[in-house]
């Protein structure tokens, strides 16, 4: 589990007490490609292979799912890990030109990018006809909530999960960053050769433009969140054929785009 115990002084009304709290670990992952710096992201350690695979896929750096991803890790210091990916230059996609020059913080994966280039990301409208019953969606959120072990201990991590059309849980990942959790799930699906089986992605927080972008790149037709989507997320979902739902909790949900995939 990516959590640690920390001591704190808790204040409640006019009383105070020394407590032990479980907090989510946040550490630095520096990704290089052929020893050339690509990005630095803050993430919860664990499942780094899946995170890197999903990130390179969603950033249009490596879309070929059949390629084995050779990754070498080394510790730079106590909180920084360097991961070098060795790839033939002929395999690199257009996303390699959008190298992030600033720190990509855990709450917003797009903050460090030099340019916002949608032309290389959104090439074809998502027309996949898979549908999902609203009851299965409710049940899937209950399952994800129950299995968020890091969150249940620390209250400080996000989760993403992939489900099939029948509601089967294909992957569940946690991370301190919402976009990291999504990248980990996509990478895990690629590694398991189950990306084509995924009908929906569930996220525990809000939905931003970047999460819509990642899910669209993976050609997963339904994206649903516990919290709200942003206006830009809704606009992109409408334009590119993605079914987008927010406020999915307590057997409630609001669909903001392409509701024809939701039945029941």
From TrEMBL:
Q: Which SUPFAM superfamilies match?
A: Cytidine deaminase-like
Job of this protein:
Required for formate dehydrogenase (FDH) activity. Acts as a sulfur carrier protein that transfers sulfur from IscS to the molybdenum cofactor prior to its insertion into FDH.
* Localization per record: Cytoplasm
Q: Mind telling me which NCBIfam families this protein's record contains?
A: fdhD_narQ
> What's this protein's family per the entry?
Belongs to the FdhD family.
Among the Pfam families in the record, one is: FdhD-NarQ
User: What GO CC terms are in its UniProt record?
Assistant: cytoplasm
| Active site residues of this protein | 108
Q: Name one GO biological process term.
A: Mo-molybdopterin cofactor biosynthetic process
Q: Any idea which GO molecular function terms this record carries?
A: sulfur carrier activity; sulfurtransferase activity
Q: Which UniProt keywords apply?
A: Cytoplasm, Molybdenum cofactor biosynthesis
- Location, primary (coarse class): cytoplasm
* InterPro entries per the UniProt record, alphabetical: Cytidine_deaminase-like (IPR016193), FdhD (IPR003786)
Residues annotated as binding Mo-bis(molybdopterin guanine dinucleotide) are: 247-252
Origin organism is Aureispira anguillae
Q: Which PANTHER family match?
A: FORMATE DEHYDROGENASE (PTHR30592), SULFUR CARRIER PROTEIN FDHD (PTHR30592:SF1)
Q: What is this protein called?
A: Sulfur carrier protein FdhD
